[in-house]
Amino acid sequence: MAMASMARRKSSLLLSKSLCNSSDAFKYSLSLTSFSRGFASGSGDDNDVVVIGGGPGGYVAAIKAAQLGLKTTCIEKRGTLGGTCLNVGCIPSKALLHSSHMYHEALHSFANHGVKFPSVEVDLPAMMAQKDKAVTNLTRGIEGLFKKNKVNYVKGYGKFISPSEVSVDSLEGENTVVKGKNIIVATGSDVKSLPGITIDEKRIVSSTGALALSEIPKKLIVIGAGYIGLEMGSVWGRLGSEVTVVEFAADIVPTMDSEVRKQFQRTLEKQKMKFMLKTKVVSVDTSGNGVKLTLEPAAGGEQSTLEADAVLVSAGRTPFTSGLGLDKIGVETDKVGRIIVNGRFSTNVQGVYAIGDVIPGPMLAHKAEEDGVACVEFIAGKEGHVDYDMVPGVVYTHPEVAYVGKTEEQVKALGVDYRVGKFPFLANSRAKAIDDAEGLVKILAEKESDKILGVHIMSPNAGELIHEAVLALQYGASSEDIARTCHAHPTMSEALKEAAMATYDKPIHI
């Protein structure tokens, strides 16, 4: 019964997917059906697609466009492909998270498994070299993919001079004009600064500087309790820093389910990470050897001071749209600088599109990639689709926290009758066997239909486990569908099966 119902839901979803996110579909249908996917005639400089930005959204869009037979050029100002994510974001941070976790495990956990060393020490230059090697290999790999797919790569800063022309100041100091029938803005985002705080990337650092500190700070203050702040705080905390997180809001990671968030914060506190919530930074003093912050309650009140060797400013990111000439060609943006697009990623200017961090939606690399593919598919006369409700979020601490769909608070706000199923990793045999059993799986499902509304996982490798849940939500599965799917034993993924059993019926192992 469960499998049959899932098949019906899948068929219904496939029909509806082509209609969603496409309120302007009929307006554009005529122009799309007449689009030619052959190379441009006329000037040899003309492209079918020009992509400004070579980050996850931009380079993926460029490759996909070339695969669809479109003559494509990608413009990237950094000089290396991969954008913030690959060069100074996702990839180097995960390299350091893994290396610091290995050190922490060797220092605190190996002996429990019968592995003993006379001493364990950090070789920070070697750790940084490993991180840099990973980045270099991956950026070169993308250049190889460009060559394989015949994507023209221009290194330089691009800005519009017309809706079909981009002026590029090359890294060699020359200027050229790149022409394209369709131009995609994929310039990503930049660090959001705070009033009165100057980031020097030495003592007051952004996430970029935090990835390249020359020594381990004795005391580190992190301003901001989001993904980046907690991940980078975890890196340096594992390596020996005393980490204090200062957050203006009442909670860490506000997009997270509150029950999971509270357990997550307790876990981080057990790892000696300190939190000062509902607290704002009034001023920063760098006149001494270290950094002194003046703080006060977010609601106002008595001030206090906090000193550290380094401060990480991690208060979010802002769309990188300035200096692109968008105003010159009349592209509309909102009050925070995001480019306004319709369901087909088209701006108000014909032939100009935008994807990734420069448009509304979660500022995540994998979201940008999906945007890029869908946008190019629309340009090529096909149907693209991105459902932002199905984009998973992952905090890559240890344990990791991953989630997709609705939180319990969001489900309550919708007024939907629902069930909750939970299963702790303390009752999971694989987690117990490897002595790493902190966390839980929490599933929310509609009471009447049993359709899954949201899944939240806190565990080692939660970022890998979440994709079964993403697929389940994508195809409208019920909790019973997951519960009746055979999972290998012993695996961490069995906790998801047990939580699903707890949602529609009863679990076995608790």
Give your account of this protein's structure.
The chain has helices at residues 2-17, 25-33, 56-67, 83-88, 90-108, 124-149, 207-210, 227-238, 258-270, 326-329, 365-379, 408-414, 429-433, 462-474, 479-483, 494-504; strands at residues 46-52, 72-76, 152-162, 165-170, 175-185, 189-191, 204-205, 219-223, 242-246, 274-276, 279-285, 291-297, 304-308, 310-313, 317-319, 352-354, 393-395, 400-405, 418-424, 440-446, 452-459. The longest helix has 26 residues, at 124-149. The two termini are 26 Å apart. The protein is built from 16 helices and 21 strands. By secondary structure, it is α/β, with parallel strands linked by helices.
Number of helices: 16
Rg result: 24 Å
Summing up helix and strand content along with how strands pair, one would put the structural category as alpha/beta
Give the distance, in angstroms, between the N- and C-terminal Cα atoms. Answer: 26 Å
Outline the low-pLDDT stretches. 1-44
Q: Strand order of the main beta sheet, please?
A: 1-2-3-4-5
Helix content: 25-40%
**Quick one: biggest sheet?**
5 strands, mixed, barrel
| Beta fraction | 15-25%
> How many E strands?
21
Shape: globular
Overall pLDDT confidence? 92
Keywords summarizing the entry:
16 helices, 510 residues, alpha/beta, globular, single chain, disordered N terminus
What's a concise summary of this model?
The chain has 510 residues and is of the alpha/beta class.
Topology:
Layout: H1 2-17, H2 25-33, E1 46-52, H3 56-67, E2 72-76, H4 83-88, H5 90-108, H6 124-149, E3 152-162, E4 165-170, E5 175-185, E6 189-191, E7 204-205, H7 207-210, E8 219-223, H8 227-238, E9 242-246, H9 258-270, E10 274-276, E11 279-285, E12 291-297, E13 304-308, E14 310-313, E15 317-319, H10 326-329, E16 352-354, H11 365-379, E17 393-395, E18 400-405, H12 408-414, E19 418-424, H13 429-433, E20 440-446, E21 452-459, H14 462-474, H15 479-483, H16 494-504
Parallel strand pairs: 1-2, 1-5, 2-3, 5-16, 7-14, 8-9, 8-14, 9-10
Antiparallel strand pairs: 3-4, 4-5, 6-15, 11-12, 12-13, 17-18, 18-21, 19-20, 20-21
Helix pairs in contact: 3-6, 3-11, 5-6, 5-8
